[in-house]
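In response to reviewer comment 3 from the previous cycle, which asked for concrete evidence that the modeling workflow produces usable outputs, we include below a single protein chain processed end to end. The sequence was submitted unchanged, and the resulting structure tokens are shown without manual editing.
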Amino acid sequence: MTSAVSVLGAVHTEAAERKEEIAIGLIGCGGMMRGHVNNLTSRNSGVVFAHLCDVDPRQMDAISGRIDKFQSSKPKRTLKHEDVIADKNVDAIIVATPHHWHAPIALAALAAGKDIYLEKPISHVFHEGSLVIEAAKKYRRVFQHGSQMRSSPVTEQAGKLLADGIIGEVKVARAWTAEQREVRRPVPDSDPPAGVDYDRWLGPAPNRPFNSLRFHVLWRLFRDYGNGEIGDDGIHDLDMARWGLGDPYLPHKVTARGGRMKLHGHVSEYPDNMHVVYEYPDGRVLVYENYPFTEYGLHGFDNGNVFYGTEGYMVFSRRGAFRTYLGRKGKPGPTEDKAIRTQRGYVEHQDDFLNAVRTRSMKTRANAEIAHSSAALVHLGEIAYRTGGNLEFDPQSQQFVNDDEANAMLTKEYRKPFELPQV
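The workflow returned the following structure tokens.
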């Protein structure tokens, strides 16, 4: 990162930080960003959209209509995220790109004095998470991770019950993704769509010919850009499993198994089923399971958790519901209030971020430390699966013990000139 970053950080004045209307820059204008825009424009959120960025102009076109109805001023548009980061009129940035761009953009933006709402996961590889933590602290920027269920009224109500000890001490948490997936078979390489800056879309990823299956939406099936099922839907449920366990830091043992169970001929580089066990130094255990063949989910939920306590257990889902079962006979206990059922925290999570931007509070519900500790489970589980091992991990050094192959996977190579910014 050039010295210009420091200058940009310096011009982001205290006066700009105190203003009530927050100027937002959007980087990555696909489906997830459309959800953010819809939520922000559906209420008096106190924001103005100042700058849009996507390597595919059609993505910006798709959200411009909603923004034009929300405000009289037209936001700037660009294919280069650096333009948004350099815009001194932008206070905060929402990032919803493919995973391989998350950390590079976040690091540059934090160094430039921008507050960041970064979609999950915080990192494409483990090493990046620690760098984002350090940058957020160094530049005293607000950071919110896209773990929206942390802000749901359902989570708040369930958390109070857990804190009151309704199921005793939680010793084990279980997280799952259980839903049908469609086989995607290979298609020939082709030219990129007109107007797309494909080289910039690849960014730090290896240089490969354009293929429609590696582009919008389906990029998450490939290690160059995404993190597979465990890092897509799974990260949400892993995050809530950590929450239910009391947010332990990092595990010290990881075991993973999986393979191809159903989706034969599928182009994905990831297994279609995984079973990962994480053991924490104090004895607590977290289990992640992925079942790609169910229409019924588990305990009635396609994505969910069970928190096993010494006096009972709680079934919890980020779909906005929970149930408790108490005592030796599993007597049904409290559930979520009907009035808040199905609430998933999207608006509340945005408001938590915007409030922190206005008040300069660094205590968002999904700060960089929480984000890294949850995303780490994605990376450690994937590494354990790829190495076929029962791995020992040192949470303090953040390295595997006596395993060079596994440690090499904690980071990656970045294609020039898209290396990680030095901040």
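The two ends are 6 Å apart (CA to CA). We consider this sufficient to address the reviewer's concern, and the full set will be provided in the supplementary archive.
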